[in-house]
Amino acid sequence: MNLYSKKQKWKVALTIFALLVVGASLFVSNKIVSKVGEREKERAQQWASAIKKKVELVQLTNNTFSQLRDREREKMELWIDATTEVSKITPLNMNMNYDFPLRIINENKDIPVILLDNNKKVSGNINLGFDTSDIRIAYPELSNEELQKMFNDSLLILAENWEQKNPSFTIEIYKGLFMTYFYDDTEAIKKLEAERDSLITTFNSDLINNEGLVPVLLVDSETEKIIDYNITEYEINEGNKKEIINRLKLANTPIEIDFNNGTTNTLYFDDSAELKQLQYFPYIQFIVIGLFALIGYLIFSTFRKAEQNQVWAGMAKETAHQLGTPLSSLMAWVQLLETQGVDASITVEMQKDVDRLEKVTDRFSKIGSGAKLDSENLGATVENIVTYLRPRISDKVDVEMNIDPYALAKHNASLIEWVVENICKNAVDAMEGVGKLNVEVIKSEDWVYIDIKDNGKGIPSNQTKTIFEPGFSTKSRGWGLGLSLVKRIVKEYHKGSVVVLESEVGVGTTFRISIPC
């Protein structure tokens, strides 16, 4: 019992040590994952701040555009007034000074203007940046009239487009004569607007194409309209938008971006693919360590078992060898006593014991070598050993047998007798020499069962498997090898099994030996 207890303590200690190592490894790995996650959150926060700064810059640019357009409109109004004034020159007012309106007209060198009359016909234009010569290059086969018509048609289309951006001016030149002025932004404003659009495009490109950025979804807080996202794992649309937003909410706390102009956006973000993979790393590490530990344990157990087999086989063969000399001597003494006319009952019993010693020697000699299995009546083998044991155990033990006479199975009679003898002796010891021992042999289709039942002190449920371990014994002077040998003989030599079928403390125990037919 002490040997087994010490081995169990070592197992428990090593298991606790292994768990501590694995626990420490998982703790460190989780710490690393947590730090990476925090850094990704910081990156998302920094990116949100960058969005806010860029939007503020765009808003500032838009305000600047608005101011520039207001100034151009004022400049355009002044230019139209000057043009209207000059257009009213007649012979009666030829002597009036028109230097100022003419100077205003001449200063307009950057605002494109198209003038249409009441009938939507082109009356004039300035600062367009192109003329009929440009069209001539593209269409050299056109006549001058066709060329002029195409040019005027182009101006009409251009005037309609301009009016969508900048409202036109309609001026009454003479009674019943109205002229409409259409104008576009100057090249300076267009360049600034292009820079702003490029900034927005760059921002969107950074959002969509930046692989180093965590997966984000930018949503208008008020309308819940998706502004942009860079999530490529799955498609986002109006149908699954709410589901994805809820999923991102569970992954990380959303970041509110207040642009201080009544507009608020919400940034939802997920863990990066690398972080998700890293979260599984501790568990993969745990599995790998477990596999190494299991493989190491199996290798260690295999070597230990092989070493035990060699030791037990060597001890068994040496025991058989040592028993051979005194056994031969005893056989000679029995024969001598028979020739001297000693009471026959004495020599008969002595001969039985000598035969028994021969069987024991035969058993020990078979340990470590292959045992021959014969297809014989297993019930007869069991009955033979129980009959032998009956007069050699306490007469206060009531032995009952229920043997199936047709229980044929391949077995080695000598080894099976050893198995039954070991279990029966343990049962008698458990009953302390007083009780009832029942041995039953049952035949089924594929198996023959040997049930050995006693009404002794029973086995605790936590020991029903460990009693077959080498070194385990409930006896103060026991070596703990009997049941271990029983299991080895049944399992390795006969490909069967031996188990505690049922046991209750203070009631008794039933062992079942299963031998294949």
In short:
Helix content is 56%, strand content 17%. The protein is built from eleven helices and 15 strands.
H and E string: HHEEHHEEHEEHEEHHEHEEHEEHEE
Biggest pleated sheet: 5 strands, mixed
Count of alpha and pi helical runs: 11
Spatial strand sequence of the major β-sheet: 10-12-13-15-14
CATH superfamily of the domain at 370-516: Histidine kinase-like ATPase, C-terminal domain
Q: What CATH architecture label of the domain at 370-516 applies? A: 2-Layer Sandwich
Average pLDDT value? 78
Keywords:
single chain; 517 residues; alpha+beta; Heat Shock Protein 90; five-stranded mixed sheet; four-stranded antiparallel sheet; 11 helices; 17% strand; rod-shaped
Task: Show the helix and strand layout.
Elements (H helix, E strand, L loop, with lengths): L1 H86 L11 H9 L5 E4 L5 E5 L5 H7 L5 H22 L3 E6 L2 E7 L3 H23 L6 E5 L5 E4 L11 H11 L3 E4 L5 E6 L3 H67 L4 H23 L7 E4 H12 L7 E7 L4 E4 L1 H18 L4 E9 L3 E8 L27 H12 L3 E8 L3 E9 L1
Parallel strand pairs: 10-12
Antiparallel strand pairs: 1-2, 1-4, 3-4, 5-6, 5-8, 7-8, 9-11, 12-13, 13-15, 14-15
